[in-house]
Amino acid sequence: MVSASSSITTSSMSVSLSFRHKCFHKSRRHHAPRSQHYLPCRRYASASASSSSFQTSSSSSSSSSGSWRTRVAITDADATLDTSVIGESPKVPYAFKKQWYPLVVLDMINPDLPHAVSLFGERLVVWKDGQGEWRVFEDRCPHRAAPLSEGRVEQDGTLMCAYHAWRFDGQGECVSIPQSADPETQKRIVGNPRACATARPSFVAQGLIWAWGEGGPDALMESMQVEASLVPEMEGTGPSGVAPGETDAETGEPVPWNGGAYRNSWQCRDLPYGWAAFFENAIDPAHAVVSHHAVVGDRYDDPAHFECVTQRKMAADTGFRCEVVPAVPPFNQPGDYDDARVWYDFRPPCNLMIDWRHKEGSRLLTAHYAVPTKPGWIRHIVATVAQRGGGDDVLSHRWWKLNLFTLTSPAWMTHVVGPTFLHQDMVLLHQQEKIVLSGGKFRDGVEIAPLNPDEAAEAPLPQMWKDLVYSPYPPDKMDIMFYQWVEKHGPLPYPPSMPFPAIEMDKAKLFDTRSVHTDYCTHCQGAERNMKLGATVSTVLSAACAIVALSIGSSSLYAHMSTVGASSGVSVVDDIAGTVGAIPGIVWSSAYNAVTFGSLAYGLRIFLTLFETYEYSHAEDNIVVEGMASIGLAKDGPSLYINAVDAFLFGPGSGKRISDSMEKEGARWEDSEEGQVAASGVTAYERMKHSGATNAWRLKK
């Protein structure tokens, strides 16, 4: 057996790769020396905003020359603006299994336990070894094929199988077999390559644990040659801190509008629909204000026409990128489309970037990962990076407000409210893909078997989708592009023996939150424990206060009744004022506390149900989403809450301060050689933004 382990360190991430190769014709083990390698992250230079520049558009018209949209166009380093649907993309299979995939969010899982995950229908186990490295093994003990995820991480940093207590180190090598007759016998047995667990190349970056898509003797070397789909703008950001920014070249002071960015907490949950269904939905801007009514828009007032302008032609390895023109709600206010722009960037194998930019410099970059776990299921991982620009107009934009809310929320709160968005179209997507694969028939409880014994069940999805849908207008362009990409470069490499699951008619199972998130999220588990404790304590306090109020109150009333009846013969009912006055203040305060604690306990128990399930129906109004709309998060316009959040994150008066800094930098650029040759008739502020000479319009790495 050849065993190799590589520790990889770059300026932005620490990478640990583990790999085991079995050589069955040898009885000896050969260890390759530990070496240093560089694993570059996928920069997607053509798609990344960090490599994008702004320039004066040549397509300005006299009728709209004053429009911000016609003056500015984003260009990519290796792609020109193209309005064709698919570009030049030859029909070649995409190597789905020879890619990196994020499996879990690092701060969500307990490092003392092994964690079961799936990728392309194969079970894997994620665990942390004695050297502090996260490892990914195939979830199978080499002894009797028991799942290692049901085992234990021992104090010595080994992974123990719970069946017969075999132990494995971070490289997958067996280090202990307690049933061995003697040390010599154990040494001989563990020296056999068949005694080793199968490790996958893996690394940690940007708060996620990544793994290679397959095992095998060439996995390590192949993984070293492929870049992971990381997000450069997320480097250095965190849910509670600001990324380091640049300083003014002359004064040495931090540049406010380039002072880094905030990232909200990663969200992660398993969703009961497939990889293709997710991307078809996620790259469809038209559905947002309808399916996500009262969360991001209004199903009656906000739908509007738009077109998808290709920014990067379709290709097997780089997907495609489009701009939504104009950026209709929820990205702008209805009918007023000059404030912000938005781009959608599909990056195989599992990444979608939604890039929203306000004309005054603020930016929201949302990174979605849809990891194909098994047929009909994905693991959805998402986070957003926010950078503040100048001015205060952005504070009235619902897209900015909704995302700003998550920046100051604790991780568990972000996770709990996530289903208020995701569950709104969950039933639609779960059923839609099965209807398509069934040839347009709604077949309740029937699994979808492969049409071709050599292909996965979802292989014919692109063709069946084209045959069934009626897509008569430009807003569907990105969906058409996506299925053309899948037709040329897919399908997903699921084993042909795996059928596609049947439609689940029990919606309670679809809306389940515990098994798809809470069971493995330490943030939510901690919050749930605290809330249960709070509910119990509140219940006890409420009962205690009620007992105090009743006991003292009844004693006081009895004494008052005796006194009144004996002295004057007046009934207690006739002497209401005297009766009320006879009740001590402690009774009233205890009664008030009993109601308060009881209400708190009731509210906590209601909230606790969100850790279990969250049901949604478009046919009925929903109190939670309507509540979000009522505080102004889902509507354009001012919000005192958002103003407070903005001041907390970026400081009071941040809009003016950042605008002044941008103006100063613009004036400096105007005096530079590049500024002198710029086109006349454009303000220094505009030239500064368009030139790409500064970073005002992009997030810093």
TrEMBL record:
Keywords attached to this entry: 2Fe-2S, Chloroplast, Iron, Iron-sulfur, Membrane, Metal-binding, Oxidoreductase, Plastid, Transit peptide, Transmembrane, Transmembrane helix
Fetch the InterPro entries from UniProt.
Answer: ARHD_Rieske_2Fe_2S, Cholesterol_7-desaturase, PaO, Rieske_2Fe-2S, Rieske_2Fe-2S_sf
GO MF term (any one)? iron ion binding
**Gene Ontology CC entries for this record:** chloroplast; membrane
Q: What domain of life?
A: Eukaryota
Rieske domain location is: 100-211
Name of the protein in its database record: Rieske domain-containing protein
UniProt main location, coarse: membrane
Q: Which SUPFAM superfamilies match?
A: Bet v1-like, ISP domain
- Where in the cell is the protein located? Membrane; Plastid, Chloroplast
